[in-house]
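Bit of a strange request maybe. I'm writing a small parser for structure token strings and I need a real example to test against, not something I typed by hand. Could someone generate the tokens for this chain?
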Amino acid sequence: MDKGTILDALYNHYKESIFVTDSEGRVVFANKVAEERLHSDFEFLMGKSVNELIKAGIYSKSTVLEAMKTKLPVIGPINDDKTKITFSHSVPVLDEDNNVTMVVTSNMSIEHNEEWEKVISATQDERDKLKRELDFLRLRDQRVLIFESQIMKSILKTIEAIAPTDCNVVLSGKSGTGKDMIAMLIHEKSRRSVNAYICINCAAVPENLLESELFGYEGGAFTGALTEGKIGLFEAVSGGTLFLDEIGEMSLSLQSKLLRVMENREVRRIGGVKNIPVNVRIICATNANLKQLVKEKKFREDLFYRLNVFNIELPRLKDRKDDIIPIANMFLTELNGKYNQNKKFSELTLKTMLEYNWPGNIRELRNVVERIYFINQEDEVIFSPMLAAEYSHSNERNCKGIKTCDFKTLKEYMSYTENTFIKKVLEECGGSIGKTANRLGIHRSVLYRKLNKK
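Reply from user aminoacidic:
Good idea to test on real output. This should exercise your parser:
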């Protein structure tokens, strides 16, 4: 069967419209159904560009132009008449160099218009929801990128080098070290920053739900599925960055599907029969040792090497002491602005912050600052009862081993005992300077001097 016979069959007998344009958006083929729906004949359409057809009023908008621009399939309305919406589905054909050679477009039949309108409306609602979440994340996360330590400056240089590329990145480090903030920074410094950035915690979502969140599903794919189906995060974030937090918690079966998406740059929805092209940069984070998980057969080795193009190890807060006070002051400034206050940390609090180990890292520091801020509501100078408790317990343990040779004079011993007692009372009073001063029978200014005494 020759090409002429096939084209004749498509032109005269195919019941859906077919509309083909070349790499410059000029019409090279249209069948009878397309002519009828566009109210134009074959001779008029041939050789016309899509822009010329829009200017001629053949239709109001074109999915062809968007498909050429994004190099992805596009579904959308081609007229502005709300009572007679017509939808088109444009699919770009790419060569080996990823250039558009042609675009094949079909118009939905009248009986399918209502169904497609529901699907597209639901898809747009989902995209709007994801955009709102993205805007919220940007506003929430912009404030933690503060560092003065040499180790973090070195990490920033690495980020500056890799951000403009499309290389996948693994962020490792203990919980609370700011992996999500660094992922956002990499996205903001990349060429994808104008597109979406979405984060999902692989440990917080059940496996079956995580699969549908990542890959989406067709209508009726499983019990409880939306009848119109749902796009997955890979589709929603195409052109942007997907941050997979706690990647080490992902099941082996999902790891296999993730690897397939990364290698083929295509995703197939649950219950679907066609592959959808996607263009996504993946940044993932873990507080687990992925190499050890590979040895234990809990993480796919091929996926590990696919993801681990660049690995950035984030240090614990206690290993970047130069950042502790700037970050704490940032949190304090934020709270002062929110509640119209002018509180500041006592010298003893700052000293204690520097000496504390911070096992919960930046997350714990933020929680402590918020807690002591509200505990010290009546005081401009605030003190940390949590840190005071840590040191008072340490002092109690040390008291058991006190020797007379530890103190040169009675005054030194009395000063040490007084300081221990004050910190214990401060702990029992929940960190309130006012309550502690009343309990001790001294003025709060005297208590401040004693607490800040070297």
